[in-house]
What we know:
CATH topology: Alpha-Beta Plaits
Number of helices: 5
Low-confidence stretches: 11-29, 126-140
Protein name: RRM domain-containing protein
Shape: globular
Organism: Ancylostoma ceylanicum
Strand content: 25-35%
GO molecular function, one term: RNA binding
Oligomer: single chain
Order of helices and strands: HEHEEHEEHH
Helix content: 25-40%
Radius of gyration: 17 Å
InterPro entries: ESRP, Nucleotide-bd_a/b_plait_sf, RBD_domain_sf
Keywords: Repeat, RNA-binding
Amino acid sequence: MVNHTDLLDLLISSMGVYVPSGLHGERDAQIEGDVVVRARGLPWQASDCHVAQFFAGLEIAPGGIALCLSAEGRRNGEALVRFKTPEMRELALKRHRHFLLSRYIEVYKATPEEFLHVAAGIMAMLIPYQPINKHFSHCD
């Protein structure tokens, strides 16, 4: 098992970014090796809400949807989704070639490391959080 909370906390603290609540969870949370899937073929306009709708009825872990981005920072039509249990992932895999917004979606097994890699990429795209007066200190 990979302790993703420690990895994300280290990444967050080293970059000094603001993280929306829910991206990292409880202190001892871990990602089991068999709870992540990769969804491919998402429409460009698909959001995390669309991904959640596609997997409706299945228990997605809090902060468990990571949309993949291209080198230009645009969505590339893929997402990694972390479920609460291996059983939920097995049910998610049965949604292979089901439709979302008139496109069929491919669903494959993925690893916790892949999820963390994508989540870390999203973290790098976030704007660094700094107090606003730091930006205007030259105005004194």
